[in-house]
C-alpha cells in the first residue's frame, strides 16, 4: 500500500488524478461486486429473461409466424380434448409422484437416522444411485424392463401365473409406469433433504418428549414434523415445479402414446412446437405451465426467506 | 444441559435400560431390513441394464429363459462400442461439452456468488432472489424460444449450441449453492493485508 502511493507521487499530476479516480471507483466494493456479477446477469438476461418474453411474443403469433393473433392460440388449445388430457395428465403425474416421493423420502430418512452414522455412508451411497444415473439413460433401462414382448416384469408375473400386462401400451398402466419411474428417480433427493433436516432437530426435544411419555408416532407428529416443516414445504414445492416440467421420462418411455394419453406439458410442447413445426402453438403449451409454476415459486420463495430470517434471528 | 441428561441416564433403573436396549436393537435391525428392501428396489434398473449389456444379440432376440440373468455373458458389446468410430466421436463430444460447461459455469457462479453474498451492495438481496427465481424456471419452459434463438444464431445441430445452453441451465443452481458457501466462510479470510 505504502510503496504503491510512492509510485503514484512520482507520476505527472493529471495522470495521478485520473488514476486515483479509477482506483477509488475500483476500490468501492459495490463496483467490484457488480463487475463480478455481470457475467451472470448477462447470461440470465440473454438466455433466460429474453427467451421467456420471446416465448410470450411467439405464443401470440399465427402458425406461419406472420400475424399477431392475440390469445387465439390459448383459446384454441383449451378447446381441444387432447390438450385437456394433457392438463389432467400433467397434474396427475406431478401430484402423485411428489406425494409418493415425499412419503417414501420421509420413511427412508427416518430409517437412515435410526442406523449409526458411521454406517450411513454406504447406505446413502447405494440409495443415491437412481439420482446419480442420468435420467435419460435410466429411463431407457426402465423401458427395457417394461418391454412388452420380452419384458422382465412380465416374466415375473408369468412365473406367478398372472397374464402379461402391456405396460406402456394402455393408458392407465403407462401413466402408472411414468409415475413409478419418477418416484424411483426422485425419492433419493427427498431422503437427502429430510435427512439433513432431521439431523438439525435437537436431541433434547426428543428426550423431553420421551419424558412426557410420547410414543414414536407422537414424537414424529409433535416434534419432527413441526421442526422440519419448512424443509418439507420447500422440498415439496421445488419438486412439484421440476416434476411438473419433466420431459425426459415421458419422452423416452412412451413419447406421449398411446393416443396422446401420457403426454405432459413439456412433451406436448415439444411435439407440437418442434416436431410438427407449429412454434407459436408449442410456445403457448409451455406457457400454460407458467401460472402454476409461478404460484409454487411464490410459496417456495416465501418459505426460503422466512427460513433465512429464522436462521439470522 | 448435556451434563443433566447424562446424570438422568445414570439414574434410570437397570431393567428399564435393558428393555430400551432391546427396543433399540429391534429398531436397528428393522431399519436395516427395510433399507435393504429399498436398496434392492432402487438397484433393479441399473442391475438389469448391466445384465442386458452382457448379453449377446442372439440371446436377447431368442427371448428364451429368464431375462433377469445372463446365460452366456460376453463383453463383445463393449468391444464393438469402443471400436465404433461414431461412438468415439460422441464420447469426445460429451467430454468436451462437460469440460466447457463446468469451467464456464464455475467461473461465472463463483464470481457472482462471492459478489452477491460477501460484498453486499445496494439491491444485492433482490438480485440473489432473482437468481433463485431463475433456478426455479424449468428448462422445458424455455426450450421453444431457445430453439428459435439458436436457430437465429445458425447453431442448430451444432455441438457448440450445447456449450451455450448447458451453462445457462447450470449457473443459477451453482450460484445459489456457492452463495451459501461464501456466506458461511469466515470473514477474516477476506481481511486486507
Features:
heterodimer; A: 313 residues; mainly alpha; MetI-like fold; 17 helices; flat; disordered N terminus; B: 193 residues; 8 helices
Describe the protein's architecture and organization:
The complex is a heterodimer of chains A (about 325) and B (about 190). Chain A is an all-alpha fold. Chain A has two domains: about 1-60, no CATH class; about 70-310, Orthogonal Bundle (MetI-like fold), CATH 1.10.3720. Chain A is built from 17 helices and no strands. Chain A has helices spanning about 1-10, 15-25, 30-60, 70-80, 80-115, 115-125, 130, 135-145, 150-160, 170-200, 205-210, 215-225, 230-245, 250-255, 265-275, 280-285, 290-310. In chain A, helix 5 (about 80-115) packs antiparallel against helix 13. Chain A is flat. In chain A, about 35% of the residues are buried. Residues about 1-10 of chain A have low confidence and may be disordered. Chain B is mainly α. Chain B folds into two domains: about 15-80, no CATH class; about 85-190. Chain B is about 75% helix and about 0% strand. Chain B contains eight helices and no strands. The two termini of chain B are about 40 Å apart. The model of chain B is unreliable at about 1-10 (pLDDT under 50). Chains A and B meet through helix 3, helix 5, helix 6, helix 8 and helix 9 of A and helix 2, helix 5, helix 6, helix 7 and helix 8 of B.
Question: Gist?
Answer:
Chain A has 313 residues and is mainly α. Chain A has 17 helices and no strands.
